[in-house]
Amino acid sequence: MAPSTKTRERIVQASLALFNAQGERNVTTNHIAAHLGISPGNLYYHFRNKQAIVAELFGQYEAHVDAFLRLPEGRALTIADKTLYLEALLAAMWRFRFLHRDLEHLLDSDAELAARYRLFARRCLQAGGAIYQGFVEAGILRMQPAQIEALALNAWILMTSWVRFLGTTAGQTADLNEDSLRRGIYQVLALEDGYIAEPAREAVEALHRRLHVPLEQVL
């Protein structure tokens, strides 16, 4: 890796860590440069401003979600896939938690990022609907098309608002923890309760127990 490439990657990773720990609004480019022990000019050589760093991180998050939020090729979905999807969502939420916590501010601050996010949201809703349809075809869920559409939308709303809920209701802001996010994943799974096909119920309930975090640990 070339020195300039290495510095750029260090800036991205340090920014992610600082944004996650302190909130994006509380971190300046000077903070990032000081954290890395480089000059502000060196940082600006790679990124013209903080918005450019946020855009880079969103691109990584976007690519990561796009990579796993899709149907497997050449086979039907299984209960194990449900676990993989939910655990992947948890990992993505945790790694890029500042995006969820500061989303409205970030989109209000950058029209280009807001446009990218709208396209990303549409892709996620389409992919989520296709995955739910896949679980129906695999005999794991029983739903009609209108129910699939509503469930995909409800899951998206829950996932994208869960961190805000933690901040406003549970008082968690910069001190988010993985258990709190895991409860959010559990809530997504709970949305499906009325649609589980009986042959799959035992396996899905085992997944419920695996992901459950007592509410008193969250509120």
Notes on the structure:
The protein is mostly helical and 219 residues long. The chain has 2 domains: 1-48, Homeodomain-like (Arc Repressor Mutant, subunit A, Orthogonal Bundle); 50-217, Orthogonal Bundle (Tetracycline Repressor, domain 2), CATH 1.10.357. It has 11 helices and no strands. It has helices at 3-22, 29-36, 40-46, 50-68, 79-95, 97-101, 103-109, 111-137, 145-169, 178-190, 198-211. Helix 1 (3-22) crosses helix 2 (29-36), helix 4 packs parallel to helix 8 and helix 8 crosses helix 9 (145-169). The mean pLDDT is 92. Residues 5-65 form the HTH tetR-type domain.
Please identify, by name, the CATH architecture of the largest domain. Answer: Orthogonal Bundle
Q: Classify the beta-strand content into a percent band.
A: under 5%
User: In CATH, what is the homologous superfamily of the largest domain?
Assistant: Tetracycline Repressor, domain 2
Number of domain modules: 2
The backbone outline, from C-alpha atoms, is elongated
Mean pLDDT, to the nearest integer, reads: 92
Q: Span from first to last CA?
A: 45 Å
Class computed from helices, strands and strand pairing = mainly alpha
**Oligomer category:** single chain
How would the blueprint of this fold be written?
Blueprint: H1 3-22, H2 29-36, H3 40-46, H4 50-68, H5 79-95, H6 97-101, H7 103-109, H8 111-137, H9 145-169, H10 178-190, H11 198-211
Helix pairs in contact: 1-2, 1-4, 4-5, 4-8, 5-10, 7-8, 8-9, 9-10
InterPro entries: Homeodomain-like_sf (IPR009057), HTH-type_TetR-like_transc_reg (IPR050109), HTH_TetR (IPR001647), TetR (IPR025722)
Domain HTH tetR-type: 5-65
Protein name: TetR/AcrR family transcriptional regulator
